[in-house]
Design goal:
By secondary structure, the protein is mostly beta strands. It has 2 domains: 14-113, Sandwich (Immunoglobulin-like), CATH 2.60.40; 121-196, Sandwich (Immunoglobulin-like), CATH 2.60.40.10. 5% of the residues lie in helices and 54% in strands. The chain contains 1 helix and 15 strands, in the order H-E-E-E-E-E-E-E-E-E-E-E-E-E-E-E. The chain has one helix at 14-22, and strands at residues 28-32, 35-42, 47-56, 62-73, 79-85, 92-100, 104-105, 109-113, 121-125, 129-134, 142-148, 153-160, 164-168, 175-182, 188-196. The strands form 4 sheets. Strands 3, 4, 6, 7 and 8 form a 5-stranded antiparallel sheet that branches. Strands 12-11-14-15 form a 4-stranded antiparallel sheet, with no helix packed on it. It is elongated and about 65 Å long. The N and C termini lie far apart (84 Å).
């Protein structure tokens, strides 16, 4: 009786290792009032000498905005870390990554930072669309009404569950518009004006 043996050879290339490491950092970020809070976790067994926190305005150009000195990680348990970016780029996507021990890079994460005005909202206009960001403290579905400056209702957006409303502005003329955001019961939560260029 003849026996056949199969040998499977797995070759790990450095790029595959770097990709596996990239996914073990668990980097997440979110806006908390006027700052962006970053947190990550190094899996048990991963250690390095120091961590740099980098921010970019795109996914190619980064600058160091923070550093954690000393040995990072642990051979015995998962190790959590956090960092607060106190001066993110306003009304823009901020891109973050970690450089661990000058050798490993985390995945790049985007975090959109909204710089609210004194009235509690922010507006992002492009040539074809407008996004209004507002503070939302309830789980209610909201409604937004858009008026021209003469008080004529132009559009109504219902069942808003996020903290923003996006709409096409191609059919709107150059000038000021007023919006009112209400809860499901009709209580006014936010009122403001926007300018369409």
């Amino acid at each position: 009786m003849k026996m056949l043996y199969f040998v499977i050879v797995i070759i790990l290339c450095p790029q595959s290792f770097a990709q596996a490491q990239e996914n073990s950092f668990h980097l997440i970020g979110n806006q908390q009032e006027g700052e962006i809070y970053l947190s990550w976790r190094l899996d048990k067994g991963y250690t390095c000498a120091g961590t740099d926190i980098e921010r970019g305005f795109d996914t190619t150009h980064f600058e160091r905005i923070g550093r954690i000195f000393g040995i990072c990680g642990s051979s015995d348990f998962d190790q959590p870390y956090s960092f607060t970016d106190i001066s993110p780029i306003p009304n823009s996507i901020n891109y973050y990554r970690l450089v661990l021990g000058n050798r490993d890079y985390s995945a790049i994460i985007p975090v959109y930072f909204v710089a609210f005005n004194n009235f509690g909202y922010a507006v992002d206009n492009t040539a074809s669309s407008t996004t209004i960001y507002f503070l939302k403290n309830s789980i209610d579905h909201l409604k937004m009404m858009l008026f021209d400056f003469n008080g004529r209702l132009l559009n109504e957006f219902s069942n808003i569950i996020d903290n923003k409303v996006e709409f096409e502005n191609n059919n709107l003329h150059h000038g000021f518009y007023v919006f009112i955001i209400t809860d499901e019961r009709g209580n006014k939560l936010q009122r403001g004006k926007i300018f369409i260029d």
